[in-house]
User: What shape does this take?
Amino acid sequence: MLQAFLMFNDYLRFVKEAGNHSLRLVCLLGVFFISAFSAYGQAFPGQLISRWKPGTQPETLKERNPYLFVSLRWADKDAGLLHSAWDTTRYSAEQAMAAMRRMYGCEAVQQVHSVHRRREANDPLAGSQGYLSRIQARDAWNFGTGGVTAMGDTVVVAVVDDGVDTLHPDLLPNMWVNRGEIPHNGLDDDGNGYTDDVRGWNGGDSNNRTFTVQSMDAHGTAISGIIGARGNNNTGIAGVNWQVKIMPVLCYASSGSGSDIGVVRSLLYVYRMKKLYLSSMGTKGANVVAVNTSVGIDRATPQDAPLWCALYDSLGSVGIMSAAATSNTNINVATEGDIPSTCPARSMLVVSSTDINDQRVSCGFSDSLVDLAAPGENALSAELVSRPGTNGPYKAVSGTSFAAPQVAGALALLTSQSCKVYLGLLKSKPDSAIQLMTGWIMQGTDKLNSLTGKTKSGGRLNINKAWLQMDAWCKNNDIPYAVTEVNPRLCQVFPNPAAAGSNLKVSALNNGISKVSIYSVSGQLLAVESVSAQNGTGFLSLPALQPGLLILQIEDGDSIRRVKLYTF
Assistant: This one.
């Protein structure tokens, strides 16, 4: 059934504009698909969440259909999301949804399901962060440790989970703050539709409480520590990013229960904040580049949760990539189902888990839907400050929940280190840019026998190899970026600075004819020359060009090298 869904994905996925938010959501037509699985995440009895055309009046719907709408209220009015309950003595879930789909204005409907944290029980482990070495994060730090892009945009990662301990000494310096909001004044100062969202948003209760309190289990705190515990500060641990901004988005209600309404509202908040950032030219909102979702619905398929799945596409449409934890149950998610693993979103990477010895642990698998793995077993991360162990507020955690944030952290780290051409593409053509980034991650994986046939890539995350993939692309597509990466000992030009007509000496060449392309710093091709080398040295007469900084691209055999040349 899932294969049929994927084959007809283009047919089913109609793009809808949701008011002023341009929210793209799936519209399921009639009852074309009947779920082949009944054992997905537990549904809340008698509850539905549905999307309606603008202008829908809940009071009218309830008045005309008193048994189909026993209770009815907006889950998110701007997005047209209604949360309703039906009379379970008169209708089954299938009958209620079928009746609603036949009504004018209904674009999508699904049951409300319970969602579960993607985590397994574990014992505290005193030790180092071996997973950082296994994914070669430490090697990637030689090129950058995160924080700000080449365009000057602060990198933000949204963590859709149970909140974050904002007082944790390793997390506090990297916590995102909405500078457009005045704390605790009861007003929506930045006009984003959310009141007092200084530290993110609570989609579970639709309020601004996003911090983890003592009664909660620190799931989101541990995830945040893996993504961005402050590095090189002589305190605790280091995240994949030393500097990054973590946006906590709490998807669980204060009662402790979790539902996909909270997840949908949380993802809507992230989407709107990035869209606001783009429309305001960075003066409002947040530059969210990645979102981590380590929550899910066991044994569910996209037709069970179309609103959730479609939001990953909405995030991708504004340049947000997603890292999602697959199930901790040892099942083939392609045949038995899992949300979000089975969501057909091009902007999402689905992550399973390995141990420190690169052996796959018991968790969801699929060679078509699970993209890669990361070492999420016994990963040392942050714990609540109120619950310190022998090593302070840190503990070892296990599960796919803690593999996924390594990938989310990698997406953020690589974006912060990327070239301006890629960053421009991420804004102008986000789908193309995201496919490049996810491709670099996938191509850079370390292939493992334990993952053969269990993931699409057959490999485990390697951030350094992914960086090399990105670096090669940027060198071929962004001339100024390439120059900054050149080791001058590999190719030198004398004199430098030089005057027009100067006879330039170029060293460190292969013998023979090399092509020399001369570019302006903006990348405009100004001239093409050739140089003949003997004993590794050649000479080139500099043509008359405008004074300033030039870039010489030297195609020498199979290599392409670039050096700066100043002219006067």
User: Anything to note?
Assistant: The mean pLDDT is 85. The chain has three domains: 2-34+43-113, 116-477, 484-567.
